[in-house]
Design brief:
By secondary structure, the protein is an all-alpha fold. The protein has helices at 3-18, 22-29, 45-49, 54-79, 87-100, 113-123, 125-142, 145-164, 168-183, 185-193. It contains 10 helices and no strands.
Length: 203
């Protein structure tokens, strides 16, 4: 097997790993409705929480984050820890695209917040912690989960460049951030209109 074929298979595997929707898996296991069929239709932890099952939402959140982390962990175990090559950044993007456009569910995926965090944590513990801190600070003071995700997406590439300089991985993170912001366009409209739901507020 040539190196190119091996790397291509690794990238494809990352996409398949990302394509596992834990919102669907957990919902089926706990006999809950398909997350595509209610609420926002988004297969993510926030939508699963609309069923009232907090455990299902937490398991969805953890599963989506862990699959992103595992994709990076697997790649690093097989090809090393060099973030300055093209392979690991492509693996990161492939896993993220798997979540957004999962082959197993008609390419109808989530917004990618938890999976992106898992990927960032897999790339660097410091990068993951910096990104998580940004989300927590914005969410705590502003009380908008979507705004916290958007601000984190904007700062994640900056954190990477500050920590490790300009590398191909910086471009990959920038691309994932742009996709995450694009997936939140509905939330952005709600924020501008003043109709976005706040954390901790009961409807």
């Amino acid at each position: 097997m040539t190196l190119l074929v091996f790397n291509s298979l690794l990238i494809l595997a990352a996409y398949f790993i990302g394509s596992i929707s834990f919102a669907v898996v957990v919902s089926k296991a706990m006999q809950l409705p398909d997350p595509h069929s209610y609420g926002s239709g988004n297969p993510g932890a926030t939508n699963v929480l609309r069923t009232g099952n907090k455990l299902a939402a937490v398991l969805t959140l953890l599963g989506d984050a862990l699959k992103g982390y595992f994709a990076i962990f697997l790649a690093r175990a097989l090809i090393g820890v060099d973030t300055d090559s093209w392979v690991l950044p492509t693996v990161a993007v492939a896993a993220f695209l798997g979540h957004l456009f999962p082959v197993f569910y008609g390419f109808k995926g989530g917004k990618g917040v938890a999976t992106a965090f898992g990927i960032l944590l897999g790339i660097s513990a410091w990068l993951g912690l910096a990104s998580l801190s940004t989300w927590l600070i914005v969410a705590f003071f502003i009380r908008y989960s979507s705004l916290a995700a958007l601000m984190t997406a904007l700062f994640a590439p900056v954190y990477f460049v500050f920590l490790y300089g300009f590398q191909p991985m910086a471009m990959a993170i920038t691309g994932m951030s742009a996709l995450l912001i694009w997936r939140h366009q509905g939330n952005i409209k709600n924020l501008l209109n003043g109709t976005e739901g706040r954390l901790g507020r009961k409807k």
